[in-house]
Amino acid sequence: MEALRKRFSRQDLPALDAVFALRITAQQVDNAITEWMADTAGTPARFQVLGLLWASGSGGVQHKDIVAALQVTRATVSGLMSALERDGLVKSIVDRDDRRTLNATLTPKGRAIIEKAIDANTASLRVAFATLTAHDRVTLTSLLHRLRLGFIAVRDRPRR
Hints:
It is a single chain. The protein is mainly α. It contains 7 helices and 3 strands; from the N terminus they run H-H-H-E-H-H-E-E-H-H.
């Protein structure tokens, strides 16, 4: 790290420190959330899908909307949905108006699992965020969103 610190300018050094602090924090958060979810929804991705379907009520959600909400590939959602269907948590049916469209809904078992997961994970989130005020949480979310956009801009810029 010391060699890197010498290589970076005083102006860029805080960004390097922030990136490493963010990376370590992200790893710890991911590990904690994965552990929380293991006893309820199984994984964070499964929680997201089940939560999305739960929030939709009985109307269901098209698979393409799950892709958009999770910002993952169709293949990822297809695999998730297959596993959730195999576990009896969701059901996907072909849309009667557009046979290329799949609509997903929760089964009663899926609803029970996500409701248990919401309750358990809400308690964990309260503890994890206890040191932040409501204003801190809003500021953190805004900063993370802006940082994400910055990293997207780097990813999408033309290569030299």
